[in-house]
Amino acid sequence: MSTPHKTAATAVPLHPLLAGRWSPRGLDPRHELTDEQVTALLEAARWAPSASNTQPWRFAVTHRGTPEHAAVLDALAGGNRIWAHAASTLVVVAAETHTSEGKERPWAVYDTGQAVAHLSVQAEVEGLAVHQMGGFDSGRIAALLPDGVIPLVVLAIGRRDETAELPEVLAGREAAARDRLPLEALQVPLGVPTAV
What we know:
Elements: H1 16-19, H2 35-46, E1 57-63, H3 67-75, H4 78-84, E2 89-95, H5 108-125, E3 129-133, H6 138-144, E4 150-158, H7 168-175, H8 183-186
Protein backbone atom coordinates (compact mmCIF):
# COMPACT_ATOMS: atom_id res chain seq x y z
CA MET A 1 0.00 0.00 0.00
CA SER A 2 1.08 3.59 -0.46
CA THR A 3 3.23 5.38 2.04
CA PRO A 4 1.61 8.14 4.16
CA HIS A 5 3.48 10.93 2.35
CA LYS A 6 1.83 9.88 -0.90
CA THR A 7 -1.73 10.03 0.43
CA ALA A 8 -3.57 12.81 -1.40
CA ALA A 9 -4.44 16.00 0.47
CA THR A 10 -8.10 16.31 -0.50
CA ALA A 11 -10.78 18.96 0.04
CA VAL A 12 -13.00 16.34 1.68
CA PRO A 13 -12.17 12.79 2.79
CA LEU A 14 -11.96 10.23 -0.02
CA HIS A 15 -11.96 6.47 0.17
CA PRO A 16 -8.42 5.38 1.14
CA LEU A 17 -8.06 3.36 -2.07
CA LEU A 18 -8.52 6.55 -4.08
CA ALA A 19 -6.59 8.88 -1.82
CA GLY A 20 -3.66 6.47 -1.60
CA ARG A 21 -3.39 5.55 -5.28
CA TRP A 22 -0.30 6.77 -7.09
CA SER A 23 1.95 5.64 -9.94
CA PRO A 24 5.31 4.37 -8.68
CA ARG A 25 8.24 3.46 -10.88
CA GLY A 26 10.07 1.49 -8.19
CA LEU A 27 8.71 -2.03 -8.64
CA ASP A 28 9.83 -5.34 -7.17
CA PRO A 29 11.56 -7.38 -9.91
CA ARG A 30 10.93 -10.62 -7.97
CA HIS A 31 7.18 -10.18 -7.59
CA GLU A 32 4.80 -12.13 -9.82
CA LEU A 33 1.09 -11.54 -10.23
CA THR A 34 -1.08 -14.57 -9.63
CA ASP A 35 -3.62 -15.69 -12.22
CA GLU A 36 -6.33 -14.79 -9.74
CA GLN A 37 -5.01 -11.22 -9.42
CA VAL A 38 -4.87 -10.80 -13.19
CA THR A 39 -8.42 -12.09 -13.45
CA ALA A 40 -9.58 -9.67 -10.74
CA LEU A 41 -8.00 -6.71 -12.57
CA LEU A 42 -9.60 -7.67 -15.88
CA GLU A 43 -12.97 -8.35 -14.24
CA ALA A 44 -12.90 -4.87 -12.69
CA ALA A 45 -12.22 -3.40 -16.13
CA ARG A 46 -14.88 -5.58 -17.74
CA TRP A 47 -17.61 -4.14 -15.53
CA ALA A 48 -16.82 -0.50 -16.29
CA PRO A 49 -19.59 1.49 -17.97
CA SER A 50 -19.50 2.11 -21.71
CA ALA A 51 -21.64 3.93 -24.28
CA SER A 52 -24.48 1.63 -25.39
CA ASN A 53 -22.63 -1.16 -23.54
CA THR A 54 -20.20 -1.50 -26.48
CA GLN A 55 -17.29 -2.49 -24.19
CA PRO A 56 -14.61 -1.34 -26.68
CA TRP A 57 -11.61 -2.05 -24.45
CA ARG A 58 -9.12 -4.79 -25.20
CA PHE A 59 -6.21 -5.96 -23.01
CA ALA A 60 -3.06 -7.82 -24.01
CA VAL A 61 -1.49 -9.15 -20.81
CA THR A 62 2.22 -10.05 -20.87
CA HIS A 63 4.24 -11.50 -18.01
CA ARG A 64 7.88 -10.74 -17.22
CA GLY A 65 10.19 -13.38 -18.68
CA THR A 66 8.06 -14.08 -21.76
CA PRO A 67 8.80 -13.06 -25.37
CA GLU A 68 5.58 -11.01 -25.41
CA HIS A 69 6.69 -9.01 -22.36
CA ALA A 70 10.09 -8.44 -23.95
CA ALA A 71 8.47 -7.21 -27.19
CA VAL A 72 6.27 -4.71 -25.34
CA LEU A 73 9.18 -3.58 -23.16
CA ASP A 74 11.33 -3.03 -26.24
CA ALA A 75 8.64 -0.78 -27.76
CA LEU A 76 8.57 1.51 -24.71
CA ALA A 77 10.33 4.86 -24.72
CA GLY A 78 13.80 4.68 -23.18
CA GLY A 79 12.76 6.62 -20.07
CA ASN A 80 10.13 3.98 -19.36
CA ARG A 81 12.26 0.93 -20.23
CA ILE A 82 14.81 1.81 -17.53
CA TRP A 83 12.31 1.00 -14.78
CA ALA A 84 9.34 -0.86 -16.37
CA HIS A 85 11.40 -4.03 -16.90
CA ALA A 86 10.78 -4.78 -13.20
CA ALA A 87 7.00 -4.85 -13.64
CA SER A 88 5.44 -8.24 -13.05
CA THR A 89 3.13 -7.61 -15.96
CA LEU A 90 2.94 -5.18 -18.85
CA VAL A 91 -0.58 -4.78 -20.19
CA VAL A 92 -1.27 -3.17 -23.53
CA VAL A 93 -4.62 -1.40 -23.42
CA ALA A 94 -6.31 -0.89 -26.77
CA ALA A 95 -9.70 0.19 -28.04
CA GLU A 96 -11.94 -0.90 -30.87
CA THR A 97 -12.74 2.55 -32.22
CA HIS A 98 -14.90 1.23 -35.09
CA THR A 99 -17.44 -1.55 -35.41
CA SER A 100 -16.77 -4.52 -37.66
CA GLU A 101 -18.91 -2.71 -40.27
CA GLY A 102 -16.62 0.35 -40.07
CA LYS A 103 -18.95 2.62 -38.09
CA GLU A 104 -17.11 4.93 -35.69
CA ARG A 105 -17.46 4.39 -31.95
CA PRO A 106 -16.99 8.01 -30.80
CA TRP A 107 -16.77 7.18 -27.08
CA ALA A 108 -14.43 4.18 -27.34
CA VAL A 109 -11.33 5.96 -26.03
CA TYR A 110 -13.24 7.57 -23.16
CA ASP A 111 -14.85 4.25 -22.25
CA THR A 112 -11.51 2.45 -22.33
CA GLY A 113 -10.10 5.05 -19.95
CA GLN A 114 -12.92 4.26 -17.54
CA ALA A 115 -12.07 0.57 -17.73
CA VAL A 116 -8.44 1.36 -16.86
CA ALA A 117 -9.59 3.47 -13.91
CA HIS A 118 -11.62 0.52 -12.62
CA LEU A 119 -8.61 -1.76 -13.08
CA SER A 120 -6.41 0.70 -11.17
CA VAL A 121 -8.73 0.78 -8.18
CA GLN A 122 -8.92 -3.02 -8.11
CA ALA A 123 -5.11 -3.10 -8.20
CA GLU A 124 -5.09 -1.04 -4.99
CA VAL A 125 -7.43 -3.60 -3.42
CA GLU A 126 -4.96 -6.32 -4.45
CA GLY A 127 -2.01 -4.42 -2.94
CA LEU A 128 -0.61 -3.77 -6.43
CA ALA A 129 0.67 -0.68 -8.17
CA VAL A 130 -0.23 0.47 -11.68
CA HIS A 131 1.79 2.97 -13.69
CA GLN A 132 0.20 4.05 -16.97
CA MET A 133 2.58 4.87 -19.81
CA GLY A 134 1.92 6.80 -22.97
CA GLY A 135 5.59 6.75 -23.94
CA PHE A 136 5.80 3.91 -26.46
CA ASP A 137 6.14 3.34 -30.19
CA SER A 138 2.49 3.00 -31.17
CA GLY A 139 3.32 1.49 -34.56
CA ARG A 140 5.40 -1.27 -33.01
CA ILE A 141 2.76 -1.99 -30.37
CA ALA A 142 -0.02 -1.95 -32.98
CA ALA A 143 1.93 -4.53 -35.01
CA LEU A 144 1.71 -6.89 -32.02
CA LEU A 145 -2.08 -6.57 -31.80
CA PRO A 146 -4.94 -7.97 -33.88
CA ASP A 147 -6.31 -5.74 -36.63
CA GLY A 148 -9.04 -3.31 -35.63
CA VAL A 149 -7.72 -2.22 -32.24
CA ILE A 150 -5.80 0.96 -31.46
CA PRO A 151 -3.19 0.90 -28.66
CA LEU A 152 -3.79 3.67 -26.13
CA VAL A 153 -1.59 3.00 -23.12
CA VAL A 154 0.72 0.40 -21.58
CA LEU A 155 0.26 -0.46 -17.90
CA ALA A 156 3.18 -1.54 -15.75
CA ILE A 157 1.70 -3.59 -12.91
CA GLY A 158 3.51 -5.04 -9.94
CA ARG A 159 4.32 -4.58 -6.29
CA ARG A 160 5.90 -1.33 -5.17
CA ASP A 161 9.49 -1.62 -3.92
CA GLU A 162 10.72 1.25 -1.77
CA THR A 163 14.29 -0.03 -2.13
CA ALA A 164 14.27 -0.12 -5.94
CA GLU A 165 17.24 1.69 -7.44
CA LEU A 166 16.18 4.34 -9.94
CA PRO A 167 18.12 6.98 -11.86
CA GLU A 168 18.43 10.20 -9.85
CA VAL A 169 15.78 12.13 -11.78
CA LEU A 170 13.24 9.31 -11.36
CA ALA A 171 14.16 8.74 -7.71
CA GLY A 172 13.37 12.41 -7.09
CA ARG A 173 9.95 12.04 -8.67
CA GLU A 174 9.32 8.89 -6.65
CA ALA A 175 10.01 10.70 -3.39
CA ALA A 176 8.17 13.93 -4.29
CA ALA A 177 4.80 14.73 -2.78
CA ARG A 178 1.81 14.32 -5.04
CA ASP A 179 0.02 17.41 -6.26
CA ARG A 180 -2.96 18.32 -8.37
CA LEU A 181 -4.53 21.50 -9.68
CA PRO A 182 -7.00 23.01 -7.21
CA LEU A 183 -10.66 22.15 -7.73
CA GLU A 184 -11.37 25.76 -8.71
CA ALA A 185 -9.06 25.39 -11.70
CA LEU A 186 -10.95 22.34 -12.94
CA GLN A 187 -14.44 23.81 -12.82
CA VAL A 188 -15.52 25.91 -15.77
CA PRO A 189 -18.61 28.06 -16.14
CA LEU A 190 -21.32 26.88 -18.47
CA GLY A 191 -22.35 29.53 -20.97
CA VAL A 192 -26.11 29.23 -21.22
CA PRO A 193 -27.53 31.24 -24.14
CA THR A 194 -29.84 34.05 -23.14
CA ALA A 195 -33.35 34.15 -24.56
CA VAL A 196 -33.86 36.66 -27.37
